[in-house]
Design brief:
The structure is a single chain. The chain contains 9 helices and 11 strands. It is an alpha+beta fold. It folds into 2 domains: 147 residues, ABC-type transport auxiliary lipoprotein component (Rossmann fold, 3-Layer(aba) Sandwich), CATH 3.40.50.10610; 99 residues, TonB (TolA/TonB C-terminal domain, 2-Layer Sandwich), CATH 3.30.2420.10.
């Protein structure tokens, strides 16, 4: 990792790059694993030893993709990665992919300058396939990098709709959400998954992203569902009751 960090640092200095963000690496086999997380952490830590390199704290990246529920494989592509970098005030970024061979793991990284994004340099480093690295490669993470929240889809202490005698709210007035300017300009769409609190009147009072989208669509999804009106859930006693419920919000370009 020392040699790779030295080569990255040399490219960063030569191109006068500022505020560098090392994003989570993908792979092997286009998966998201603890190995990609470790190698990204190690590269960032090695670069931090050079006082001439300005770095964005990787904890900011982790918190952002967790909060936004972003898919790491998609975030490892230049344009979505560039958008994330801009959200975190990074002026340059590194993305990477891990290739597995017979005896080695090969890390391919690319350095980009914002806000193009412009490819500055491609680099690679080879790591012997030790038992420790192989173990990390075999420990897959959820694509959003937010394992705990995705194992327990629980926003609050409210009961889940459709379980234990609580019915599910249904849409009465659920208009399509508005597109963000960035998403519309890129013709980007998709489906965001949220978990929402629906009160006893059928109004959505709170919502958080479980699996999100890029380019400001998450904010539009949360804003949109708070305008929805639902038939309230009915509890075991036959009365309307507040519940929490998973909701999908789709952004379609026609």
């Amino acid at each position: 990792m020392k040699d790779l960090a030295g080569n990255v640092a040399q490219a960063v200095k030569k191109s006068h790059l500022k505020n560098l963000l090392v994003m989570d690496f993908q792979g092997p086999n286009k998966k998201y694993s603890l190995l990609g997380l470790k190698l990204a952490d190690d590269l960032s830590a090695a670069l931090a030893l050079d006082p001439a390199i300005g770095l964005i704290d990787r904890r900011q990246f982790a918190e952002f993709v967790s909060r936004e529920g972003l898919l790491i494989p998609e975030a490892n592509q230049p344009d979505p990665a560039n958008w994330i970098a801009n959200q975190l005030s990074a002026k340059s970024f590194v993305i990477g992919n891990i290739e597995e061979t017979g005896n080695d793991f090969i890390l391919h990284v690319t350095i980009y300058d914002c806000p193009k994004p412009r490819n500055v340099q491609d680099l690679k480093a080879t790591f012997s396939k030790t038992a420790d690295l192989s173990s990390l490669a075999g420990r897959a993470l959820d694509a959003t990098g937010d394992d705990q929240r995705n194992r327990d889809h629980k926003l609050s202490s409210l009961p889940h709709s459709g379980q234990h005698g609580y019915s599910m709210p249904h849409c009465q007035y659920c208009p399509s959400p508005e597109f963000s300017t960035e998403a519309r300009s890129r013709k980007a769409g998709g489906t965001a998954t949220l978990i929402a609190e629906v009160d006893e009147t059928g109004q959505i009072t709170n919502a958080v992203i479980l699996q999100g989208l890029f380019y400001g669509l998450n904010e539009k999804a949360v804003e949109g569902v708070k305008q929805w009106r639902m038939t309230p859930a009915i509890g075991p006693d036959g009365s309307p009751v507040a519940v929490q419920q998973r909701i999908e919000v789709s952004f379609r370009l026609y």
